[in-house]
Amino acid sequence: MKKIKILVGALLIGSTMMMSSCSDDFLDTKPSSSVDESLVLSTADGLLAAVNGMHRNMYVRQNSSQGQNGYTSQMIISDVMAEDVVFPTAGNNWFVSQLRWLDAANVNSGSVAYAWDFWYSMIKNSNKIIVKGANATGEQNTKERAFGEAYAYKAFGYFQLVQLYSKRYVKGGDNSNVGIIIRDDSEDNSPKERATVEEVYQEIWRNLEKAEELLKNKKTMNNSHFSISNVYGLKARIALVQQDYVNAVKYASLAKVGHPLMEERIYQEGFNKYDNDEWMWGITIVDDQTDYFGNFMGYMSRNYNSTNIRQSPKAFNSALYKKLADTDVRKKLVDPTGKHESLGLPSNFAKFPYTSQKFLSVSAGDSRGDVVFIRASEMFLIEAEAKYFLGDEAGSKAILSELAKKRDSKFVGFTNSGAAYLEDIYVQRRAELWGEGFRWFDLKRQGRKLDRTGANHSSTVTNGVMTVESTDSRWQWLIPQSEINANPLCKQNPS
């Protein structure tokens, strides 16, 4: 395949209304290393190159701003706003304002604006591929792959946005409250009202259906690309959020086919290799794409020599830690002393109890490490939770036991039932997906309050934010002021 070099790392987020010039596109490039937009969108290979650019933007720094590294920075935010990732100190203050729930209620917050801008730029680029690339020449199979992935990205973008900026979806409830803005035309910059939450989810499913249609029976190049398994995985994740438990079971079961759970030995090596069979979707970081102190491992690994990690290594919730068996591999990744002697940490690394070495960079001087977006274990957890709510507790225990036995060779079975067993499901989910960007979203979809009490959180570090009731308006992020200014039809959320 002829390669077209596109410097998507130069993506510059413009107006949230997408009224900016093409500077917020994957085609914002330097002439010496890029091609014209019309050329890119005129061939099948060009379309796929544009999709490759979207993959890269899930990781690389944008706006020359540390802490704005595509989807990976938003994964960090969603965990630090919850209770399972603990900051022993404020360190050098990266993600501390999010930890303290300040940004969600600030219309001028950089992280509030960035998430909105990032996903709408991805949606805009998806629309360019789908609409402007319709008449592209070249191999039909390649075109369909590019279109299928663009539809998947579009669905994922809307899903992230509606979770952040709207009220949670309640099955059988009133989902007519405002969701987000739906845009299908990359050239349409006109003011537009927010669709309802129900309408947004309908749009998400329409795009996923198109993605499934186009990607079914197509071989995926690698785990950075959307495969049919990933489409099923997204469907399972979204169905769970909508409390559509029948489809959650259906798609979770389909998604995990061909993705065996990793062995304990591999689990202990550090979550940094995307060719792991359990990984369904992630991103690999090559030498020239590392961002040193600004990438995921620069904040979340235990061994990289960054100021943030030296001063404030990320700890595991101590109350959750005590719920795990000593033989559980996920517990073995947490050091209650904080010394992590197997890593040989330098003397200038601060040591705090219950820090985690789940994520490891290549070395102390190399912050690279692949980042996972979807794993088969999540599908086991979705299926178990969905079967529980369908009244099939035995079936739920059977599927969850498969996961539990892989993580703890001494595991013998779940003895609780009813609400107590449901808590077992949630403990497994919290331990398994720690640091992967789920916990805040889980609390929101479950309608549960944030509770950091009784664990190793410091009220000084959290600025007193130890509990947040489920009715608090901050579970629905404010729309950035720049969007409100540009789009008079966009209604602001309550504060």
Molecular structure report:
This protein has 495 residues and is mainly alpha-helical. Among the domains are: 1-218 and 466-495, Serine Threonine Protein Phosphatase 5, Tetratricopeptide repeat, CATH 1.25.40.390; 285-369, no CATH class. It is built from 19 helices and eight strands. The strands form four sheets. The chain has a two-stranded antiparallel sheet. A two-stranded antiparallel sheet has the order 2-6. The chain has a two-stranded antiparallel ribbon with strand order 4-5. α2 runs parallel beside α6 (140-165). It starts with 36 loop residues before the first helix and ends in a 9-residue tail after the last helix.
In brief, what are we looking at here?
This protein has 495 residues and is mainly α.
Key terms for this structure?
495 residues; two-stranded antiparallel ribbon; Serine Threonine Protein Phosphatase 5, Tetratricopeptide repeat; 8 strands; disordered N terminus; 42% helix; mainly alpha; 19 helices
CATH-derived architecture of the domain at 1-218 and 466-495: Alpha Horseshoe
What proportion of the residues is helical, as a percent range? 40-55%
Record the strand order, biggest sheet.
1-3
SSE run: HHHEHHHHHHHEHHEHHEEEHHHHEEH
Structural class of the helices, strands and pairings? mainly alpha
From the spread of the alpha carbons, the general shape counts as: globular
At the third CATH level, what is the topology name of the domain at 1-218 and 466-495? Serine Threonine Protein Phosphatase 5, Tetratricopeptide repeat
State the distance separating the first and last CA atoms.
Answer: 51 Å
Overall number of strands: 8
Question: Which CATH class of the domain at 1-218 and 466-495 is shown?
Answer: Mainly Alpha
Helical segment count: 19
C-alpha Rg, in Å?
A: 22 Å
